[in-house]
User: Fold this.
Amino acid sequence: MAAPLSDEAPLLVAEGLSRLYGARIGCTDVDLEVYPGEVLAVVGESGSGKSTLLSLLSTELAPTSGRVLYRMDNGLRDLSALSEAERRLLLRTQWGFVRQNAEQGLRMAVSAGGNVGERLMAVGWRNYGDIRAEATSWLDRVEIAADRIDDDPRAFSGGMRQRLQIARNLVTRPRLVFMDEPTGGLDVSVQARLLDLIRSLVSDLGAAVIIVTHDLAVARLLSHRIMVMRHGRVIEAGLTDQVLDDPQEPYTQLLVASVLAA
Amino acid sequence: MTYLTPSSPSPAVLAVTGLSKAFTLHLRDGLRLPVVSGADFSVAAGECVALGGPSGAGKSSLLKMVYGNYRVDAGAILVTDGPERVDIARAAPRRILKLRRERIGYVSQFLRVIPRVSTLDVVAEPLRLDGASPEAAAGRARDLLARLNLPERLWSLPPATFSGGEQQRVNIARGFIAPRDLLLLDEPTASLDAANSAAVVELIAGKKAEGTAILGIFHDAAVRTAVADRVIDVTRFGASQ
Assistant:
């Protein structure tokens, strides 16, 4: 478990972050800061560059230019300068990544309890009884019945898989969690349950979250701040309710106006 | 608690100066809709100020600007935060969120319902975020819901299916549960009957006695007379020009 950090300094900083795919722009010239406990939503349509940005921030993709800094015990560190061992340790101990497709975020042939427990083992838990007890407790927190602990996620519905992925990522109490369309492709009723779980767990843990979504309602429910992307650039950013209720840019006004009210 | 006499006016909790705002509708060929221009007013601790004027004069928009929900084109919105005065018109999002957590309460006309969260938890949340124990926060939430005559059988349910008047009372209880220096009230009695309006008037009087500065919109003349120390006519801020 990571020690609490002062929330007066940013946890993650991106400076002039760009990624080109040949001549095509993935995303360009993005600056951002995320503070401990803060939820930042990145919204935009398909192809706006929001997923590219998430890959750059989480070091899955190397930038064409610019850099990503992360606050470690010895201050802000440039992530491109970390050794592979340091980077892997960071991913395992301080970060989480919840993917739209649970099959990419889970080990499908490992039991539900194993999916959660192996993250604990990665941060040094050794006692089998403790690991199983903690895994059971987390399955309960994400509303998966204890008697499913030995089933593997291939036997789970889409919503259950996504809840299991949440448990797997939050069990180690990460400081920073990346989420890529975590409710995409789920039924609306299943989405509501998942969103409520994410909202309360993230707030209980005080984790910082960077969430990519095309769904403005998801951004409104979960995030403190929002960034609107178009053609690889951030065109508008600010307090979530302010950007959604009083959008300034023509494109943001179009996005907000295009949402159907139920 | 501080008691104020007219001869020693307390410093303003809220001071608005030169505030101007227009909406630019890009989807309507850049049509500009002026809201207010050059608005100046302040609200002191323990004072309730009503925003007056016809529909469309910009009363709700003014409240939303003070809460940081709408942006501002020019002017300042200074809110006292301990030794500091923070300009909401220019403050960073994190600073505004901190003010909302600690200093400013807002009761909007409509409750934004969060799926699956019970009424009791919706109401207790601001006090829990202030650091109160879950039991203490729930106890205070029960007191408030009882004072507002919300039937006890509804307390464990999410308010999504409640009537307008029931949702409004949940919203009021949530807005009043935690102590705040500044309370913004947008038509808190709009969907309430006389008995429930009277309960809200009493709650407002209690907040004033605690030293809370209140800025509100009250369409009901009897409610306005009962709670407001002053009425500011918003039309004088040139909204319609």
